Amino acid sequence: LRRTKHLLRVPCDSGKISNQTNSIECTFCPDDFWSNIDRTVCVLKIVEFLAYDSLGIALTVISVVGASLTIAVFAVFFYHRNTAIVRVNNSVLSFFILFALTLCFLCSLVFIGEPTYWSCMLRHTIFSITFSFCISCILGKTLVVLAAFTATTPGDNIMKWLGPKQQRAIIFICTVIQVVICAAWLIESPPFPSRNTQYEISKIILECSVGSSLAFWCVLGYIGLQACLCFILAFLARKLPGNFNEAKVITFSMLIFCAVWLSFVPAYISSPGKYADAVESFAILASSFGLLFCLFAPKCFIILLKPEKNTRQHLMGK
């Protein structure tokens, strides 16, 4: 008789239950619940976000290591600030870039943890402003390198238009444009936390909705525009004379930067839930490491291991 009653039981679809053996009706589970395997009871849905689990901890460690390496490079440059390689390559802009890279490494930490109203607003705005500031500094340095090597005669005096004040003005203006875009984004349609139950109906995926998609892509597009402009200018100056032409390393660093973020876009779009945040955090860290090593590893190598090459005569070459 028990077996007959078991056979009479109607199997329910996912999300429905029937807690009576001979029942022919199934009832829906509440919004935050899902049916168990036997379809006899409703259980809480799994809540998923980029938490401090193995993935979150790994990203945190990489972020802290990157920031620590940047601070170490800053200390090396500050200690050797009167040497040729630091002075020839514009020490002030180098310190600005290192400060910006430290912020870039640390801003990836905002993507870890449960999304809240404030964290969602801070995620993309802090990331976009810090990276825009960093690329603006590199753009300013590229313009200085290009101007210094193209001023072939004393009468050109092109460097008077790219003095320290003008360099800071370029960095300020380029960064303020991004700040204005972010301010308009936050005022008009800011990012907000959302509960995604459509991608996988048995789970609740906590994520940050971007609010205005147009503003989100404008922010990324502006950073891409800065990087492309910096790459083009550095590419034009790559064959200029000098044993340590910084335009070469800037060209390579911008190439890596653009490659990382071009591969990020399809990966971000196709990644669900916490993996989208992990992909964006990884892209931030990968591009930051690329800039740090390409721009500063050759200089640190000469400063620490080849001090005999750290002379103005060797660096200027022909």
Automatic annotation (TrEMBL):
Annotated Gene Ontology cellular component terms: plasma membrane
Gene Ontology MF: a single term: G protein-coupled receptor activity
Entries under InterPro entries matching the protein: GPCR_3, GPCR_3_9-Cys_sf, GPCR_3_C, GPCR_3_Ca_sens_rcpt-rel, GPCR_3_CS, GPCR_3_vmron_rcpt_2
UniProt-annotated location(s): Cell membrane
Key words, A-Z: Cell membrane, G-protein coupled receptor, Glycoprotein, Membrane, Receptor, Transducer, Transmembrane, Transmembrane helix
Domain G-protein coupled receptors family 3 profile: 55-318
This protein's record includes keyword RNA-binding: no
Membrane topology category: Multi-pass membrane protein
Keyword Glycoprotein attached: yes
Transmembrane segments: 55-79, 91-113, 125-149, 169-187, 214-237, 249-269, 281-305
Protein name listed in UniProt: Vomeronasal type-2 receptor 26-like
Protein source organism: Notothenia coriiceps
Gene: LOC104943644
